[in-house]
Amino acid sequence: MHVVIVGAGEVGWYLAQRLGAEGNDVVVVEQNEVIAAAIAAELDVQVVVGNAALPSTLRAAGIERADLLAGVTQNDEVNLLASLLAKEFGVAQTVVRIQTEELRGPLGEKLLATMGADVIIDPDADTADEIMELAHASGADEVYPMSNGELLVLGAVIGTTSQFVGRDLAEIGRSFEPNWKFLFGAVTRDGETVIPRGDQVLQAGDHVRVLTTRAARREIMELLGAATRQARRVMVLGGGAVGTRVAERLQSEGATVVLVENDPARAKALSERLPRVTVVQGDIADTELLLEESVSRMDLVIAATGDDASNVLACAYAAAEGDAFTVAVLHRLALLPLVRQFGIDAALSPRTASANAVLRHIRGGTASVATFLESDVEVNEFEIEVGSSADGTLVADLHLRHSVLLGAVTRQDGSAEIVRGHTLLHAGDNVVVFSRPDALAVTRRAFSA
Amino acid sequence: MTLATHSTGRVSWFGGRGERLLSPGRYSSLVANVVGLTVAVIGVGIAASGVVDAIDGGPDVLVLLATGAVVWAVGSIVWRVTIVPKQIRILDVFTTVTLAWVAMAVVGAIPFLLTGHFDRIDDALFESISGFTTTGATVTRDIEATSQGLLFWRSTTQWMGGMGVIVLVVAVLPTVGSGGMSLLAAEAPGPTGERLTPRVRETARRLWAVYVGFTIVLAALYKLAGMSVYDAVSHSFTTVSTGGFSPYQDSIGAFDSALIEWICIVAMLLAGGSFTLYYRAIKRDPKPLLRSSEFKVYLVVVAGITMWAFVASGTDGGQSAGFRDALFTTVSTVTTTGYVTNEYGLWSQTTQLVLLMAMPIGAMAGSTAGGIKIVRMMAVASFAHREALRHLHPHLVRPVRVGSGILPDDVARRVVGYMILALAILGGGAVLISATGPDMITSLSSSATAFGNVGPGLGSLDHANDFLSIPAPGRAVAMVQMLLGRLEIYPVILALSVITLRIPRALRPRRRAD
Question: How is residue B252 annotated by DSSP?
Fold first, then answer.
């Protein structure tokens, strides 16, 4: 597949990396020469320097051959124009990043439909969605909804008090017969991620990704020894697009929310827009201010400013002063491995949230996709087509590769279950699969006719 | 009127043929122009009362007609020889509104003197001010012995003062451009003036149209409920304006009709609501009215006080009130109308105290009611809440809200300042009145009823809207309070400061010749 990515910012960079790893031809169009040189040096992609709103630039990027264009610059107008031009050149699919909130309403939707954009993404909205999932998941550090939210992939670090410590997966599985509510999809230890088999022994400190039904999420977090209390008192640091959305939603769910914003004018605007949120003006790295707003008594602290260092600092301080669950938004992926050392419970990046939305579309239709920051394991959802080898087959007879783990199946009536060897698959079912990118094509073949 | 000629730029030869004849002598003065037209309008009202007296065959026909004609002529001349300046300064606006009201009070008092109704100037002034400010307190000894024409003039003052003569003048003035809105805002009840249309003249016209329409419908209803045409019009005038004058000593109670009282209750409630929102509702946009948090709080306040009066009036040795009496008295008090149907002076002390507290508060902004207004109370409550929260969150950022709406900080500050002044005027007025003789409850309630433009009081004031028990110096204090209450303090204070600043300047010799 020939893919043109417009803008080598956070989202574009991550998208180029992911799509390149899957063996696609990726061309990145970037206006800034320094960034263009950086991405060319780092990733195996072609880079075109220029303005993507110009047909000549797009032609240089091979737009005539392209199957997909993703306009993901910070500039809505450039993204829209690039998408319009791409449609003129006959590109089948376009993805457009729109940050203007008003354009996401019904009127904007109509306009965007007229302009031919297939997928609209908004990293800030997607990040806010992810933070909300974290706030609801009582202690998980990553949450990815699959199959319309019936299933969740939860990331968590196994606590020392967990009954799983020192036991292997086969043993754990036996103790939960006959119906499994969860399944270990990936285990990360010392920076190495594996898709586990039955002989995998779990240790405290392992970072695991567990596939579970939505209803069982609290139970599994308790079994992992990572559960936290419900977020009733929340502090949101940073009143940008992400922080504002999160504060608004938590507030409407009945939590007491304190929102800290440094810019006085912005703080004033927020105080007018969010009537029941306590808006406080000040620097989030000012520990006096955090103490003043009783950071030690919070259940959940979310740092979502544009400044990574401040986010890490504020979360680290909150973790040290109290026992709040802390979530930091990070724009630089390189910082991510360091974050846990500061006692921060979860970190996420706007880029992965939006990239998942794009990947989901590329892989076709309603299926869900989850990718993880620190490993190349991904979770994909496939629909079993009529006449495929999986149709009418037991899971045990599929003979999938070792780097592929079939995790759960969603029936046509919407019910979801964790699969066992004796689970029978039918056409029309959706399956959730853990795999490495190189096994993706083979895996997909098993489910398509 | 020396103030009126402060800007003496002569107007050149603009305009049509008719205007050119007058143009050479026209002075550019906002104050003189507006005051002149105001006086002319009042002259028409006085003459109309003369016509009413003629129909009744009363004794005051000639006096009222002649006074009306002279007043109209004088006002018209002043109006015609002046012109509104192109540039209007905001301070001129306050001076204009305040002086126009003083002129109204003085001119409106003339019929009371010339007909021999009063022989003291201050009594006539009291009646006139009480009328124009829609207070409804009176110093008339025997209302029913007064001629129908003069009583009609009494009702007319309230009707004119209700929506505001300035609003009417702006509706008539051909050339009030930029300053018109501030004129409206300075006279209109409530903290913010709101435009209904891009042109201020249209806004003023529409407000008056709603007001006149309301008056006509109500008069028809009163007539159908059994009043004579004269009574229906008089009471319609003083209900819609939340004034409270009645040609009968026993007020609405004189009719002893449940139907009339119910009509009156609903009409008073409506008159206590915002006419701006009514206009929108009539134009098929009822959402602002239904969503108005002030409207909701207004209704809740009325319901709460009614229930209190209904339940608690009989306790502690008081006389128990029927539901209709409780509702009528509450609505009459909260809307600052001041009609009376029953002896609420016999109710329990706490119930009377609740009524006393309600007097200076008044109804909604943009209504014809007097007093502080619900919206200001809401703003002050929100302000106080914020300041309390600031102790917990020293860096708190929070707007002052009225319901879901946001009050800009400068407006909020003005409201808080207004409240402080209002409390000072209420307290200071009570002390001054009490110093002239009346007992404590009488003094407190006369201060509250005057500043709130209500009418009846408590103690020796109950029932009859009767200020005769207050000595003349005390009545003078009440007169000032009525004006301060109606104009909502700031215009009066600003006008006074302008006048005191200007006088020394006027005495200095001029350097530049114009």
Answer: G
Q: Which CATH number fits domain A2-121: 3.40.50.1370, 3.50.50.60, 3.40.50.720, 3.30.450.20?
A: 3.40.50.720
| B397, B401, B402, B410: best to mutate for the A interface, most A CBs within 10 A | B397
**pLDDT of A295 strictly over 50:** yes
**The pLDDT of residue B429 is above 90:** yes
One DSSP character per residue, B456-484 reads --SGGGTTTTBGGGS-HHHHHHHHHHHHH
Interface of B with A (CB under 8 A): 389, 393-399, 401, 404, 406
Residue type, A95: V
Q: Which residues in chain B are contacts of A261 at CB distance < 8 A?
A: 397
pLDDT at residue A363, rounded to an integer: 67
Q: Could you read off the pLDDT of A152-174 as tens digits, one per residue?
A: 889 888 888 888 898 888 888 88
β pairing state of A151-157 and A142-146: antiparallel
How do residues A37-78 score in pLDDT, each as one tens digit?
Answer: 998 888 888 999 999 889 999 999 999 899 999 999 988 889
| CA angle, B68 then B73 then B78, to 5° | 130
Contacts of A34 (CB under 8 A, 6+ apart): none
CB contact under 8 A, A292 and B393: yes
Which range of A420-429, B261-270, B401-410 scores highest in mean pLDDT? It is B261-270
CATH of A375-447, one of 3.40.1190.20, 3.40.50.300, 3.30.70.1450, 3.40.50.2300: 3.30.70.1450
Concatenating the DSSP letter of every residue in B418-446 gives: HHHHHHHHHHHHHHHHHHTS--HHHHHHH
Domain A128-223 has CATH 3.90.180.10: no
Pairing of strands B27-28, A300-303: unpaired
Residue ranges of domains in chain A? 2-121, 128-223, 233-352, 375-447
Q: Into which CATH architecture does domain A233-352 fall? A: 3-Layer(aba) Sandwich (3.40)
Q: Under an 8 A CB cutoff, do A264 and B397 touch? A: yes
Report chain A residues whose CB lies below 8 A from the CB of B406.
Answer: 272
Chain segment A174-209, per-residue pLDDT in tens: 888 777 888 898 998 888 888 888 888 998 888 899
A218-226: average pLDDT: 86
Question: Looking at this predicted complex, what is its ipTM?
Answer: 0.70
Number of residues in chain A: 449
